[in-house]
Amino acid sequence: MAQGARRPARHARQASRFATLVGRGEKPDQQHGPVRKAPDEATVSYIKRTFCKQLNATGSSADAADDVDSKPLEELLPPLTSSNEIDVQLYALIAVVLNLFVQSWYNKITPDQDFVANVVQIIAHCTRGLEQRLRNVDMEHLVFEELPGLLAEHIDAVRIASRGVQHSNPGRTNRILYHNLRPHPALSPVPNSPEQLADQQENESAWCQMVVNRALSLLLPQEEHQNPCLQVLVSEILSEMIFHNGVCGKACEGWLIWEGITKVIYTIRPDLVPSPPDADQPQGHRLAQFGLLSEKGETTDPSSQQPEYSRLERLSTTFWTLMQSAWLVWLVLRSWVVALMHASSSPARSGRQREAKMEGLPSHDIVGDEAGWSSPDLHHLSSDSRKVPILGMMVWTCLSTITRLQERMPWLTGMLSLMQWLLLVGPGQLCCTDSRLDRLLSTTLHAHALSPSHLAPALHAARAALFPSNALGAPRSPPDATEAAAIRRECARAIVGVVPPVVRKVYFATSDVEAMCAEVEGELELLFADAWVNKGLVVDVVEVVFGRLFPENLE
User: Fold this and answer.
1) Residue 94: C-alpha distances to residues 98, 115, 357 (Å)
2) Are 237 and 101 in contact (CB under 8 A)?
3) Are 164 and 177 in contact (CB under 8 A)?
4) What are phi and psi of 295, to 5 degrees?
5) For a disulfide at 551, which of 87, 122, 364, 438, Cβ 3.0-4.6 Å?
6) For the chain, the helix, strand and coil percentages under 3-state DSSP, each to the nearest 5
7) How far apart are CA 472 and CA 66, in angstroms?
8) For residue 299, which phi and psi values (nearest 5 degrees)?
């Protein structure tokens, strides 16, 4: 079978930790590190049924089936990445796509399974090449410097266009002003009529096709360039289904963005999920049902008639509160001291990129002036690697732009900017590039925000959302204006709810939660209501990521 070909040596995986422990006669729980969970058996079986049909056809049915079931997945299929967990989720996603959109019509033409094997080989070659290129991308600079900079510029352009429509250009639409500020060929012409919409969709489709073809020309093996059928099939799947219809289509809808923000907040804070309608009954009515509410609206619970605390009890409560606060401050300071001591032994940020270069192709990261600095004063802060300090990255400017901190609290913005300047260029340069604090922040970001362990659960969640039970979910009709407004309102309430009460009271300068929600809802409508405007941010992000992965196309 084509999938069973011997994989290249540089992609060979190490033996699993559990197998190593068993060979030594040790138990997993005797080790300090965590034990990885076995992949979902149902998912693995589904992958084998989809991609290993040719093995069953080469021998007797019973023997071949037993042989396929007994072998692990990594011995039957070529590796997609260097992680078995990610491979399982990627193969499951590819299996669903091939079953629903390719084999449904291909099996009606011929029962030959070599076609699927060749497609898998092409995808495996592309994913391995993509992973190798990802190792040479400065993800820290991309995620916390370049992409937040794009988001901040996009938000500024949307707000400027909105103010221009309201004040000086009543005859021009928000789209025209935004396009003048941030033009892009894929968004031209501005779709204000059906004819312009058709032309814009054609330009967008051509742009998606161009991006995919340039990527495939660098990822596909040389022999596959002579196979136009497979190349066209893979490029059509990627350009039309994923980029044009998915990334530049449904993913840009405002209601989907609001819904995604709400789900992320509910995942982080499950206590903010609204209660069922039966549980929303006022507390007074629930007390009245059990006869615990008097005529004046006061409860007859005996516990409410407790006498006031004596002075000694109040002093005791105050004392223990102060002790708890002092203990908390001590724990925080101790954690910081220990972290700083360990940060001195952490590798330099420039060393991480050198280690990545030793593992594969030379790095093509564009840094310095070509990547864009958050401030001209930061040029001399970097070492020869031209890395931006963590505290000087655009992610902080992006957060200030999203929250309108400069408009709402200029005093706070000025204070934070002064503190940033003192930490970066002040006495001691405590947070300059590769300083102890800078290494600590970088190590923390790599351990939590940029950890590859988050990719497999994210792929599993995406597959479960797009293809529940490994099948195409019921088509969801786009919500009407009333339903979209309800989704936007729920998103605003989730955002307000996740902010601590003391902070939101100072930020909004009011105690009225409904007024806070109305203000956040208006901001959400301004920024994300127009899918065409959202598409401007998406195409910019795709081009930046594409340029970092395939720097040959920038030359």
Assistant:
1) 6, 14, 30
2) yes
3) yes
4) -70, -30
5) 364
6) 70, 0, 30
7) 30
8) -75, 150
| pLDDT of 14 strictly over 60 | no
Phi, psi values for residue 81, rounded to 5°: -140, -170
CB neighbour list of residue 77: distance below 8 Å, 6 or more residues apart:
3, 47, 51, 52, 87, 91, 120, 124
CA atoms within 13 A on the CB side of 470: 18
For residue 520, what are its two tokens?
A: 């956040």
Amino acid identity of residue 120, one-letter, is V
- Model confidence at 440: pLDDT above 50: yes
Per-residue pLDDT band at 54 (split at 50, 70, 90): low
Of 521, 240, 545, which is closest to residue 537 (Cα–Cα)?
Answer: 545
SS3 293: strand
Parse the chain into domains and list their residue ranges: 2-134
pLDDT of 428 reads 83
**How far apart (Å, rounded) are the C-alpha atoms in residues 68 and 176?**
58
Alpha carbon distance 535, 192 (integer Å): 15
Kindly tell me the sign of the dihedral angle through the C-alpha atoms of 308, 312, 316, 318: positive
